Amino acid sequence: MPVVDQTLMLLLKGYAWLPDLRRRAAGDVVRTRVLGRRATALCGPDAARFFYDEDNVRRRAALPGPVKSTLFGHGSVHGLDGATHRARKAMFTSLFSGPAVAALVAHVTTEWDLAVASWQGRPVVLFDESALVLTRAVCEWTGLAVDDTDLPGLAADLVAMVDGLGTAGPRHWRARQARMRREAWLERLVRDLRNGCEQAPPDSAFEVVAVHRDAGGRPLRPRVAAVELLNVLRPTVVVSWLVTYAAHALYRWPEHRARLASGDQEFAEAFAHELRRFYPFAPLLGGRAARDLDWRGTHIPRGSLILLDVYGQHHDPRYWRDPYTFDPRRFLGAAPGPHDLIPQGGGDVHGGHRCPGEALTMALLRALTPRLARLDYEVPPQNLTISLRRMPARPASGFVLTPARPASPSSSPPPLPRAGGRTPA
Q1: How many CB atoms lie within 10 A of CB 7?
Q2: pLDDT of residue 190
Q3: What pLDDT is attached to residue 411?
Q4: Residue 344, domain member (yes or no)
Q5: Cβ–Cβ contacts within 10 Å for residue 318, how many?
Q6: Which of 40, 229, 236, 260 is most open to solvent, judged by the fewest CB atoms within 10 Å of its CB?
Q7: Residue 253 lies in domain
Q8: Torsion of CA 21, 25, 28, 32, to 10 degrees
Q9: In this structure, what CATH number is given to the domain that contains residue 368?
């Protein structure tokens, strides 16, 4: 009996699609069809280890065209394998090394503190404001000169590229248009830099990407260099989703606020891990079988799709105690293994396909979530629901808050915010 294509159901059901398929199949292996191609869906840390073995799974020709045209870009590192992938990946890991991460975090925290001071006494949408802060900071760090008047438009485009990922509707087409617009802008800058008409700060991300040579010793085509520059800017702005989730978590579970506000870095790290586990972002990951494979008795034909259920793995009681409880303490003194917590991929960041920006994401959350916990604000009535049908998900309202004063320099947190009322003095 032919397998019905599930692409429409994926778009309709979102994060619940693959866990539901596995539940009906009563197992961790599901045969299905997506985008007209045969697919085998897997789940669990062992499956993640199998998925991130390049002898088993390749990325070349695996990413669907709509994903390339919105999220990653055509010709990006995400669709490469082998030596070509390692050479391109080394460029990103060098950009997101320790000192560089610290420098970008410093840019972000400076911009955050300035922004928070300007929010005093007026309602703001945290998602939008966070995206603007992160866009301004990452452009400065990357070495791109962007006028203040152009920043809101750039931030909106970077958000749109991510926001159009899991839809075939207007959000998808806005994402395509945003990508085309920003790729053309950065391609012009790369060409101007190479022709001597533009300057970049020495060793800045702009310069590093513009002069990078791939495994064969050839410079990146200007359009591909533009794609990879966007793969520096866009993932940084993605942290606005997690900052908004952090506000949502502190609102729902205020018992975590005092310890986070105290500056306890071990707890801030655990809180960041739990945000990335509990809240929805990547529903699944996909690759292509490099050869005929066998996964625990299931044959996987060469060239077919292999899907890894990320959301399902992060909410499976076999791997997590009380998985639908938000509890940062589960990560205290117990760093997750390379295939256990996989919101930004699994395996080794240097040789494999794990996101090279993961260390930056964690560093930014360690810096920003304590600042958010120390901020004195009120939470007006609003729609804070998070629909699992929307990919990527986020609180419907974007989390509206009204700061009563700038972030306190004290390590002691202010009184807890109350919905619909001002924080008591």
Answers
A1: 17
A2: 97
A3: 44
A4: yes
A5: 10
A6: 40
A7: 65-276+321-403
A8: -60
A9: 1.10.630.10
The sign of the torsion formed by the CA atoms of 381, 413, 119, 232 equals: negative
The identity of residue 375, as a single letter, is: L
Nearest Cα neighbor of 186 from 76, 282, 81 is: 76
145 within a domain of the structure (yes/no): yes
The pLDDT value recorded for residue 416 is 46
162-166, 206-210, 416-420 — which is least confidently predicted? 416-420
CA distance 423 to 425: 6
Q: 215 near 87, Cβ under 8 Å? A: yes
Exposure string for 203-239, b = 16+ CB within 10 A, e = fewer: ebbbbbbbebebeeeeebebbbbbbbbbbbbbbbbbb
Quickly count: other Cβ atoms within 10 Å of residue 101's Cβ. Answer: 19
DSSP state of 5: B
| 388-401 tens-digit pLDDT | 999 999 999 999 99
10 Å CB burial of residue 193 (0-12, 13-18, 19+) is buried
Question: If you average pLDDT over residues 58-69, what whole number do you get?
Answer: 79
- Would you state the pLDDT for residue 388? 96
- Predicted pLDDT of residue 2: 64
Find the largest Cα–Cα distance for the chain.
67
**The one-letter amino acid at 113:** D
CA 343 to chain centre: 8
Residue 121 domain-assigned? yes
Cβ of 50: how many Cβ atoms within 10 Å?
21
Helix (H, G, I), strand (E, B) or coil at 98: helix
DSSP three-state, residue 4: coil
1 or 399: which carries more pLDDT confidence?
399
Peptide bond just before 392 cis, omega within 30 deg: yes
**Distance between first and last Cα of the chain:** 67
Give tens-digit pLDDT for 174-184. 999 999 999 99
Per the CB < 8 A criterion, the answer to whether 79 and 68 are in contact is: yes
225, amino acid identity:
A
- Assess contact for 346 and 324: CB atoms under 8 A: no
- Count up the domains in the chain and report the number: 1
Tell me the C-alpha distance between 263 and 186, whole Å: 38
| Tokens linked to 145 | 């000169």
